[in-house]
Amino acid sequence: MIVIRTNHDLQTSYLYESTKEIIKFAENKNFKVNILEENEITEQNIRKRIKTRKPSIIFFNGHGSTKELYDNNEEIFISMKSADVFKDTITFARACDSLKELGKEAVKKGCYSFIGYKNKFFIARYHDTTCKPKDDPVAKPILECSNNIVKDLIKNKTVNEAINNSHELTADYILKLIFSQELWAPATLQALIYNDKSLDYEGDKNAKV
Amino acid sequence: MTENLEYLKKLVKERLGAMPPNVSFSIGDYGDFSRDELIDEVENGTEVGKALIDMQVNFIREMPRLLSRARK
Question: Is the complex ipTM more than 0.90?
Fold first, then answer.
């Protein structure tokens, strides 16, 4: 498994932090996890790692657009042209908009299944925990519902099962948040629901590790 | 159409106004916005403001469907 994680602004720091749990989880399940971060995030490096490690899952965390993914310097490092990089993998891009065109192109070029978001990825967050994203109760359900997809893939669930389980976990959180007395609960609710609607995949729904 | 947009803007600003001031939204590469900044974005009709209106409308539409999925 390859985890690509950028960390250059507040938004990506939340994504970065939440990958730690996934890495630990994967290693406990005897997955070999290869991490690409900071200036290692280049197209050339990814191709090199894929060639030597042959990962079944690629998990990208960072900014995206309909046709591109961005590196740690906010430069495009994967575009429609280089979408073949995801060939023979199940890829989950936790990035805005990338499912729309990049996901389709990746599947056209041999990616088994590309999971991602069709719109912006929202994170509601609490100012008091800015330096400690993992302790942020406002962001926790949002990151957990997307992390759950990777955990399920590691547990050998199909892409379809992983996405459905994420939808169910989201629904469980919605119920809890509706009845929550916390003033921040509506913000988490809104972000959760928006991301859930935007979550989808291209390619084989039965793909699994 | 303009009336609808103005109504939506008002609705979204009211909803955002009910959020505590120490909560913000990080919206992809647009950045991180506090409650008051978000209200300004909606008022000014920026891309961020439009994304927020989209989010709020989606929230109202999707809630019943999502609740029906919750595990008993």
Answer: no
